[in-house]
């Protein structure tokens, strides 16, 4: 559609639960886009993350993280997060898997996968 799609990968520290990790990853993505792009739309394969954005009061165990994200949302004029099944976004899944395998700090944002980062297998 003629739009530039940015992708990123970072190996964040392990959190209490996978949902805490999803929130941390979204927070990092939002902070990164504030610096690098006018991006307003984010995608995730986590339906619970979308539910948290829609009804944060239903997730009291995540109130601190959700407050941080709600504050970041104020920086976006038209914030949107959509569900994208993992089967329809193999690149994002591969980037996440590769980031977990790095034993040193990894932080990457760009329009294409760098040569030093393993490529997802093409089926």
Topology:
Elements: E1 7-10, H1 18-36, E2 41-44, H2 47-54, H3 63-73, E3 80-83, H4 90-101, E4 107-110
Parallel strand pairs: 2-3
Antiparallel strand pairs: 1-4
Describe this structure in words.
The protein has 123 residues and is of the alpha+beta class. The protein has a single domain (7-110), classed as Nucleotidyltransferase, domain 5 (2-Layer Sandwich). The chain is built from 4 helices and 4 strands; from the N terminus they run E-H-E-H-H-E-H-E. Helix 1 (18-36) packs parallel to helix 3. The chain is globular and about 40 Å long.
* Secondary structure: number of strands: 4
Helix content: 40-55%
Q: If helices are DSSP runs of H or I spanning 4 or more residues, what is the number of helices?
A: 4
Shape: globular
- Our estimate of the beta-strand percent is 5-15%
Tell me the name of the CATH class: Alpha Beta
Over all CA atoms, what is the radius of gyration?
15 Å
Explain briefly what this protein structure is.
This protein has a single domain (7-110), classed as 2-Layer Sandwich (Nucleotidyltransferase, domain 5), CATH 3.30.420.10. Helices cover 41% and strands 13% of the residues.
Output the keywords.
single chain, 123 residues, alpha+beta, Nucleotidyltransferase, domain 5, two-stranded antiparallel ribbon, two-stranded parallel ribbon, globular
């Amino acid at each position: 559609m003629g739009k530039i799609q940015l992708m990123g990968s970072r190996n964040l520290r392990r959190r209490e639960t996978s949902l805490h990790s999803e929130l941390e990853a979204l927070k990092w993505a939002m902070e990164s886009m504030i610096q690098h792009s006018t991006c307003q739309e984010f995608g995730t394969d986590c339906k619970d993350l979308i539910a948290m954005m829609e009804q944060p009061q239903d997730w009291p165990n995540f109130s601190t993280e959700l407050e941080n994200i709600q504050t970041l949302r104020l920086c976006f004029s038209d914030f949107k997060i959509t569900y994208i099944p993992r089967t329809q976004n193999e690149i994002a899944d591969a980037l996440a898997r590769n980031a977990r395998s790095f034993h040193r700090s990894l932080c990457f944002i760009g329009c294409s996968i760098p040569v030093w980062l393993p490529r997802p297998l093409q089926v």
